[in-house]
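The protein record quoted in full:

***
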Amino acid sequence: MEENKNPEQAAASASGFGKFESGEALLKAYNSLEAEFTKRSQKLKELTAERENDAAKLQENAQCGRSAESVTDEELLEKIAKNEIMAQKVIDRYLDLFIAQNAPTLITGAGRSALTPVKKPKDLTEAKKLAEMLFRS
């Protein structure tokens, strides 16, 4: 078998460094291999952490009874519309209370009537609410 090896391989084998020419070449190859191993280990750790996070998210979705992929665009738009309607109801109620508290009242005395100072509405919606309050009373 040794007869098939070329002279360089035979010399390297005889030196005790195998396929490396010298101890320095062996050390350089070892350091390179160690650096690559470290990179791969770090990448493996990152991927494992991502997988665990994904598994946790899937578990959360499973506990909610649905997976994230099963929610359709129409369902999302419906939920958004419901939230907007609820938000508008809250705003309307707040404006009703605001106008009720800040609507002009009559000050009477000495045979005369006068309006209290009025806060001017900031937008048309507020002005509409104020007008409705005035025409109701």
The mean pLDDT is 75. Residues 95 and 126 are 7 Å apart (CA to CA). DSSP finds four helices and two strands in the chain.
